[in-house]
UniProtKB/TrEMBL annotation:
Any Pfam family matching the protein: Glyco_hydro_65m
InterPro entries (UniProt xref): 6-hairpin_glycosidase_sf, 6hp_glycosidase-like_sf, Gal_mutarotase_sf_dom, GH65_N, Glyco_hydro_65_C, Glyco_hydro_65_M, Glyco_hydro_65_N, Malt_Pase/Glycosyl_Hdrlase
Domain Glycoside hydrolase family 65 C-terminal: 691-752
Keyword Hydrolase: yes
Family that this chain belongs to: Belongs to the glycosyl hydrolase 65 family.
Protein name as catalogued: Glycoside hydrolase family 65 protein
Gene3D superfamilies the record matches: 1.50.10.10, Glycoside hydrolase, family 65, N-terminal domain (2.70.98.40), Maltose phosphorylase, domain 3 (2.60.420.10)
Domain Glycoside hydrolase family 65 N-terminal positions: 18-272
Ranges of residues in domain Glycoside hydrolase family 65 central catalytic: 329-682
Length: 785
């Protein structure tokens, strides 16, 4: 299927294809075509490096320090930030045809196609090009970042000619590439990030090179190494050289029509804040040795086997919307890439696909990404929470600095230090601590891993519970209040009793007490006693949850429903997102919501609301939510489905899923929206699938939007593999592997063993339509929409 105007990709079930080179969309294609394993990230730049939008080669948690500018400083403000940096680029393979550079801006481009294969885990490229002198070549390249060998990436590069030609291939490692300005022109920031890598060692051998650098300010050491296997005509010559910032292997031959020059490039990356130069050097050389031992075909086979196993559980099938089908698979693929081999390092808001948000991790990881990974790649989810445990000392230090007990996890960070220079939306967003605790709770329920609960989860739960106990207080009426905080909605800051924050803190306190009682000896070693657990239970029991009796809805925070409503009708479309066009002061005192907040509370704490309250709340907050954040549509999709607005849920699901393929936010060139992609899976599974779970087990309440004929999804549950298929009239539950289990279908208990179980779906209830702010409704995809 041909791409739509303005969309560079065709619509196909298992691949993302760019059928011709689209220079105007290069930033988008570089992001969508990015390959990663959670440790290494390679943006989808052209092999020859130019033209480009943003070069990008990233290593998870490898950063440089930079200044955080303040107009006025204050106590507790972070003094420096952390920014992910472009490390040594090993993607570059330059080609010269009779001394003329292969450059798509010159000569004649006859054919250019790139394909991201979601089942093979590779990016392939096929080009037919004639030089200005009329020599025509065909180039085919295939690239992967290994999901099985963490330090390894590889490229297979093949050249054919239509007329005899002298061919030179220059395969390079390049450090300190010149990058586009990315920090608003602040000279202090740009100075800190200009040539951030300081050379320590370079070496070459006949078939490759190694470069070792360290960062100027953060003191991290990085090594990159390459090696090559070459197959070409007789007389092909291979040489290598290196200097401080460049390693180069040159392959030269006279190529005749019908003969192929094939260069396989193996890459290995490693970094450390502690290991010596020889140790880091040996680390990457060992990675190269393993890659060469496996070979190119072996790496392809390993990649395919890994992904075949993953997709057996993870695949989501959607019948009735080919574009959405592709987008959901792309979303799941990028979530996997972000976390598969992160291994006790952070999962950033952009993964390793771009420089957006300076490479920082936020609460997005725990609230949006980990629900997917806990079901589909549980080891990756466990490692993400182990990373949180590893930065616990810094979070405890931050809490003490702010005058609290326990741990105050950073709003945005790479290595554990707070990097947010805007405290109303950063430091005050304490809900991140409860989000981490809830990710622990969900992971233990999903996996049944009580050892993880005791060894990792307990400490996180105890320290976050201690924070809430000192951050909040009992008022004169005995209610437990949490004042002066910011919830998920960043257009409403420094508020009292944000319902989302209070409900998540309540769950945090309850669960911490429960787990501490279950693992009493381990809890005692953390200094937890019966009195402290009782104080957590008491605070949870008396938690203040505001409710507007007149309107019959929960105010997002204390007094929110009394604020003036934003003048949506007279806000032109070009003034969105509002934060770029209006002062925060004006936003903070009006009823206008950047992203789902109270609605997110209903997604994560459905037990705290009656069905009637959910319906009234959803209708009320739809009318004031402008979705200036990509985090919003997926949550609104899920709650729309839960409240019976199936067409609207379908519209929101498509918006969340297509945010990058269609560049809906206009900033896909900065990196993929990992949280929206993860939220896409949740909108399908928890929204249309109606999945919920607690200590009593797993339940589903499936329903299908009229525009679709079928949805099928898989998930892992306590050592089992389950697949759920939904049509307009029935749902089928299939236990693919694992011991027999029980679950609930629309409240009805059923047992699963060897044979699938089919149950009818109830008629969807009639619901009154809801309205969005003027001009902010999602694009309608449903029939007649």
């Amino acid at each position: 299927m041909s791409p739509d105007p303005g969309r560079p990709f065709t619509v196909e079930p298992w691949v993302v294809r760019e059928p011709s080179l689209d220079m105007a969309s290069m930033g988008v294609t570089e992001t969508v075509f990015a390959l990663s394993n959670g440790h290494i990230g390679l943006r989808g730049n052209l092999d020859e490096g130019e033209p480009h939008a943003t070069p990008g080669t990233y290593l998870n948690s490898f950063y440089e320090r930079r200044p955080l500018p303040y107009a006025e400083g204050g106590y507790g403000y972070p003094e420096s930030g952390q920014t992910i940096i472009n490390v040594t680029n090993g993607k570059i393979i330059r080609l010269l045809v009779d001394d003329e550079p292969f450059d798509l801006r010159y000569g004649q481009l006859h054919r250019h196609q790139r394909v991201l294969d979601l089942q093979a885990g590779t990016l392939t490229r096929e080009v037919r090009w004639s030089s200005p002198a009329g020599k025509t070549v065909k180039v085919r390249s295939e690239r992967l970042v290994s999901l099985t060998q963490r330090a390894v990436a590889a490229i297979c590069y093949e050249v054919e000619v239509e007329q005899p030609a002298l061919i030179v291939v220059q395969s390079e490692l390049v450090a300190n590439e010149q990058l586009p300005t990315a920090h608003g022109g602040d000279p202090r920031v740009e100075a800190a990030l200009h040539n951030p890598l300081v050379a320590e060692q370079h070496r070459s051998d006949p078939s490759g090179a190694t470069l070792i650098h360290h960062t100027r300010h953060s003191g991290l050491r990085v090594a990159a190494a390459m090696d090559h296997e070459v197959r070409g005509p007789e007389g092909t010559k291979i040489t290598s050289e290196s200097s401080e910032d460049i390693g180069r292997t040159t392959v030269i031959c006279r190529l005749q029509p019908g003969t192929v020059l094939r260069v396989v490039k193996y890459l290995a990356y490693g970094w450390s804040s502690r290991r010596s130069l020889p140790a880091v050097h040996d680390q990457v050389r060992a990675g190269l040795a393993a890659a060469r031992y496996t070979g190119w075909d072996g790496l392809l086979d390993e990649q395919r086997t890994f992904l075949d196993d993953f997709w057996t559980t993870a695949d989501v099938e959607i019948d009735g919307d080919a574009e959405l089908q592709q987008a959901v698979r792309v979303a799941v693929f990028h979530v996997l890439q972000a976390g598969a081999r992160a291994e006790r390092r952070a999962i950033g808001a952009k993964g390793l696909t771009g420089h957006g948000y300076d490479g920082h991790t936020f609460w997005d990881t725990e609230t949006f990404c980990l629900p997917v990974l806990s079901h589909l790649q549980p080891d990756a989810a466990a490692d993400a929470l182990r990373w949180r445990q590893s930065i616990l000392p810094l979070a405890q230090e931050r809490a003490q600095q702010l005058g609290f007990s326990g741990a105050a996890f950073p709003w945005r960070t790479i290595r554990g230090q707070e990097c947010s220079g805007y405290w109303p939306a950063g430091t005050a967003a304490f809900h991140i601590n409860a989000d981490i605790a809830d990710a622990v709770r969900r992971h233990v329920l999903i996996t049944g891993d009580t050892d993880f609960e005791r060894e990792v989860g307990l400490e996180l739960l105890v320290e976050t519970a201690r924070l809430w106990r000192t951050l909040g207080h009992h008022d004169s009426s005995g209610e437990f209040r949490i004042d002066g905080v910011t919830g998920p909605d960043e257009y409403t800051a420094i508020v009292d009793n944000n319902v989302y924050t209070n409900l998540m803190a309540q769950l945090n306190l309850r669960y911490a007490a429960e787990v501490a009682a279950r693992h009493s000896r381990a809890a005692a070693r953390l200094g937890v006693n019966a009195e402290e657990m009782a104080s957590w239970r008491d605070a949870a029991k008396s938690m203040r949850i505001p409710f507007d009796e007149v309107l019959g809805v929960h105010p997002q925070s204390e007094g929110f429903t009394h604020h003036e409503v934003w003048d949506f009708e007279h806000t032109p479309a070009e003034k969105y997102p509002l934060l770029l066009n209006y002062p925060y002061f004006d936003l903070y005192r009006k009823q206008v919501i950047k992203q789902a907040d109270l609605v997110l509370a209903m997604q994560l704490r459905p037990d705290a609301f009656t069905p009637e309250e959910m319906a009234r709340n959803f209708a009320y907050y739809e009318a004031v939510t402008v979705r200036d954040s990509s985090l919003s549509a997926c949550t609104q999709a899920m709650v729309a489905a839960r409240t019976g607005h199936l067409d609207l849920a379908y519209d929101y699901l498509a918006e969340a899923a297509l945010v990058d393929l269609n560049n809906l936010a206009g900033n896909t060139d900065h990196g993929v929206h990992i949280a929206s992609m993860a939220g896409t899976w949740n909108a399908v599974v928890a929204g249309f699938g109606g999945m919920e779970f607690d200590s009593s087990g797993l339940s589903f309440a499936p329903q299908l939007p009229p525009a679709l004929s079928k949805i099928s999804f898989g998930l892992g549950w306590q050592g089992r593999q389950l697949r759920v298929s939904i049509t307009a009239s029935e749902a089928e539950y299939h236990l693919v592997s694992g011991p027999p289990m029980r679950l609930r279908h629309h409240g009805e208990p059923l047992a699963l063993a060897d044979s699938p179980v089919v149950r009818p779906l109830p008629e969807p209830p009639f619901v009154d339509p809801v309205e969005q702010p003027y001009g902010r409704a999602p694009q309608a995809r449903h029939p007649g929409g």
